[in-house]
Amino acid sequence: MEITDNITLMSGIFEAEDARDILLSLITNNINFHTLRSFSAQERFGVSDCVSERQITALSKARLEIQDNLSLAKSLGCKISVDSIIRIRLLP
Q: So which domain of life are we looking at (predicted)?
């Protein structure tokens, strides 16, 4: 039996600078988590954590995309709507 729960992480309209602070903080924290995890694997087992390395690459690309979008929004004087839902599934 699969159990699913959706949790709203954030939902709102933000000024470009506020959205930048919030979103880049989330991305940076996630990158830091995977960096530490990969470093730990390297120290303990002599190899990097390949899953974390892929995540770091993907998150770094996402960070650049977010920065580009937010720079555009700021230059156009736009506000940013951000909706983020976390889906948690308990699997057997």
A: Bacteria
How many C-beta neighbours within 10 Å does residue 74 have? Answer: 15
What secondary structure letter does DSSP report for 12?
A: E
Identify whether the C-beta of residue 53 lies closer than 8 Å to the C-beta of residue 38: yes
**C-alpha 45: how far from its chain's center?**
27
pTM: 0.87
**Interior angle at CA 77, CA 28 and CA 21, nearest 5:** 15
pLDDT digits (tens, 9 = 90+) for 29-78: 999 999 999 999 999 999 999 999 999 999 999 999 999 999 999 999 99
